């Protein structure tokens, strides 16, 4: 288990790498060029500068999250070939600087979706919250305002230039159902996977968050059947998954221990976090501690340990605790606690294994 920490870059994150360095067990930084407009080529000099800065703190920079997919590719319109070629060149450029995994998603228009960025919890902390009925009744513009007003820092998947075209995008997606979106994903993968494979990079698709349709938009990476369909598109070793316990696990029908059991070998990257799911379909993000939420984090880590999982793992979203002012879900303190919990579980299973072998 290769522990990593997501970081949004200099002048774009309240967290400093010298502070991350003080968290035991963190080996790498998960990064991206967040200032780059979606669809543009990541140039070598830009990559080099960021990688060298990360490595100067003793971290590896082998995981990128995310090289976002342009909406033209998801829509399958006449501009997609241009953006696919740009994507291929970005893959090649990243490979020259030691990148091994690229996390990406294929969610139309909206990336992760929440209705409250700072929902109060009983312990006095706040966390990201999803109110299912509110999304069902809400105008997308209201949701955009909620998200955009939550932070002055960039929020991946909610780029202002994309949000400014929201009406036009919704109109374009009227002709795209789940079948068409799958076709467009298949086209994209068949184009980029040979390049990724030749470059020694694994593509790790992130599940939809939440794993169901919102605002009538199709969602396709929602559970085990999605993974099976993705494998059927291509058996390339570059065609992989990001297991995200909090995203896919927001649907209680998805057993995340079972998902880890079946797909960890195809998942070079894992996000481990907990959510508490309510009977009405709402969910709130909690600490990583198994008993605080609805996801069997203990069982997931046990399964990864059983398989000697050597992929990259990061704590995902954290609560906002101890008065920290930060990007929603991405403070230092609770994610640091999450890392220590995951390492504690791993160490316990290591000790048990050693005891069994003596």
Keywords:
globular; single chain; alpha/beta
* Morphology call: globular
Compute the number of strand runs. Answer: 12
Helices and strands, in order, run as EHEHEHHEEEHHHHHEHEHHEEEHEH
Number of helices: 14
**Unreliable stretches covering 5 or more consecutive residues:** none
Describe the protein:
The protein contains 14 helices and twelve strands. The chain has 358 residues and is α/β, with parallel strands linked by helices. It is globular and about 60 Å long. The two termini are 23 Å apart. The mean pLDDT is 94.
Write the layout of secondary structure elements.
Layout lengths: L1 E5 L10 H4 L7 E4 L12 H12 L4 E6 L5 H5 L4 H16 L5 E4 L11 E5 L5 E5 L1 H6 L2 H9 L11 H4 L2 H7 L5 H22 L2 E4 L18 H10 L5 E6 H4 L7 H8 L5 E4 L2 E3 L5 E3 L11 H10 L5 E4 L17 H25 L1
Parallel strand pairs: 1-2, 1-12, 2-3, 3-4, 4-7, 7-8, 8-9, 9-12
Antiparallel strand pairs: 5-6, 6-11, 10-11
Helix pairs in contact: 4-9, 12-13, 13-14
Summarize the structure.
The protein is α/β, with parallel strands linked by helices and 358 residues long.
